UniProtKB/TrEMBL annotation:
<feature type="domain" description="Amidohydrolase 3">
    <location>
        <begin position="86"/>
        <end position="570"/>
    </location>
</feature>
<dbReference type="GO" id="GO:0016810">
    <property type="term" value="F:hydrolase activity, acting on carbon-nitrogen (but not peptide) bonds"/>
</dbReference>
<dbReference type="InterPro" id="IPR011059">
    <property type="entry name" value="Metal-dep_hydrolase_composite"/>
</dbReference>
<dbReference type="Pfam" id="PF07969">
    <property type="entry name" value="Amidohydro_3"/>
</dbReference>
<dbReference type="InterPro" id="IPR013108">
    <property type="entry name" value="Amidohydro_3"/>
</dbReference>
<dbReference type="InterPro" id="IPR032466">
    <property type="entry name" value="Metal_Hydrolase"/>
</dbReference>
<dbReference type="InterPro" id="IPR033932">
    <property type="entry name" value="YtcJ-like"/>
</dbReference>
<keyword id="KW-0732">Signal</keyword>
<protein>
    <submittedName>
        <fullName>Amidohydrolase</fullName>
    </submittedName>
</protein>
<keyword id="KW-0378">Hydrolase</keyword>
<feature type="signal peptide">
    <location>
        <begin position="1"/>
        <end position="27"/>
    </location>
</feature>
<dbReference type="InterPro" id="IPR006311">
    <property type="entry name" value="TAT_signal"/>
</dbReference>
Amino acid sequence: MNPTRRQAAIGGAAGALSALLGGSAAAQTSGSGASAMTADLILVNGRFTTLDQSNPNPQAVAIAGGRFLGAGTEQDMRALAGPATEIIDLGGRRAVPGLIDSHMHIIRGGLNFNMELRWDGVRSLSQAMEMLKKQVAVTPPPQWVRVVGGFTEHQFAEKRLPTLDEINAIAPDTPVFILHLYDRALLNGAALRAVGYDKDTPNPPGGEILRDNAGNPTGLLLAKPNASILYATLAKGPKLPPEYQLNSTRHFMREMNRLGVTTVIDAGGGFQNYPEDYAIIEKLHADGELTLRIAYNLFTQKPKQELADFESWSKQVKPGQGDDLYRHNGAGEMLVYSAADFEDFRVERPDMPSSMEGDLEPVVRLLAQNRWPWRLHATYNETITRALDVFEKVNRDVPLQGLHWFFDHCETITDRNIDRIAALGGGIAVQHRMSFQGEYFVERYGAKAAERTPPIARMLEAGVPVGAGTDATRVASYNPWVSLAWLVTGKTLGGLKLYPQRNLLDRESALRLWTQANTWFSTEEGKKGQIKAGQLADLVVLDRDYMSVPEDEIQDIESVLTLLGGKPVHGTGDYAGLAPPLPPAMPDWSPVRSFGGYQKRAALDDRKYAFAASCGCASACGVHGHAHTGVLAAAAPARDEGAFWGALGCSCWAF
């Protein structure tokens, strides 16, 4: 062993830890030399992608006190072991920094996760409907069965949503609510009765209740152009009691750990008031049960009273208040309701009202004066232009540099506005919503316009901080690997290629947007996001090699071992049992008990659903007299392909 190299590795680790921990690392080694520094955990035989350009591919990693102690040769890292050090062999697997989602609704989502049937990842409508049927059978009154976003009809082999008749046939008495993106919700008859919608119920502003010829609601709710009608209807459903919400949030966090996520920047949300709706996450934090790091933004709840919200909150909490597990992050993504341009590419772009600038300026001025970072939801360039006019006006009086403010989404932003953001020191957080909605965008605006939705490469060229996230759970899926696949391939879940090569990222650059780059958005640069001495020891061991698997497999990656501060929070296979056990999902009828969360794509290879991929008909066929997807969920012997489909000689199934 080269003693000079070993001392350099250990000395670098001590120096980095000393800088971050106020000299404590140096104190540990003083007097007795480097041998006093002992690792709690050493990872060997892995392929490490550190994202540390000075040390990109070490052989082994050592962890102590919740932080990375060193990364280097296996010999050097093993030299940091003591009698109590645990050594884990990664078996040649790829390890990357813990993933950071810069835009998600984890706090609100956690309160409801155990009540939701997730179609995330499901690749045939027939499978989705079978899941629905099974869940209806075990859901007691007055509870609902809810499918709340995370999927698109384009991911299904059948390329369609279920019909209301199909849903009502499966669930005549149990309320069913299915949310599809920002554009619509499907309610069966029982759900319409539960929410009280009838022929006398008026359409709310910005939404439409579709009706039959007699004026009765059909069960289809449309966002025209905003999703308020969808979310307000969902809010009418039963809620879980607090003890179940605690359990639900724990299960959602562990689901994120299973996919390799260790940090979430929570973007607030409608019906998520502060501090009341933060009691569950704060109790989990106080009880030491968080398995994610959470930085939370505060989202105004009262149209026309937004300034009062932020004036009140600015007296209650300060940005950065908290610790490395749970901390306040500023304002947004809603600052004022008149600036919210909900994207629904099935309808025309909404124009923001003339009051937008007058509403937005006092809020932004208050935030800037109090040094509160903010984030603002903005899909369309037209909205961004008007918001930047306000930001530039405020900047003349209260400089915004160093404030870490940013826009979310920015699907149609122009080069000019990218440069304006750069000049003001702002950032842009992008999400993979186009992976779910790209077909609708192309249908309305054309393939050429879709090539820059959003123009990520141009943002990076301009020097704008760019980070990636999901905007889960009500639109896109919370699975980070679906986003990473979109960044690398430019394809929708339906397989449509959206972007030319110039707007795609290589795999390491995409991973950096999901790790190191996202620390800017919570003002935590240098604290995490890399496998580097002194940083928080958040690390993920993958079930397949992200850097080399075929592009089509990126979206299927999962974690086999997830570490948060050096402690296992998820383990499977060779690492099963390392993470603390999780109590069963509550209540006992929870869809999480039966189905879990994100569904593995391998289900498509099951012959049980093979006919759906080749047929996918939505209309009645000449032999069966019904849609195939509907009959699969009904009481017919549809599972036996030879005796049922084949024997009857279906006229629209290609044998």
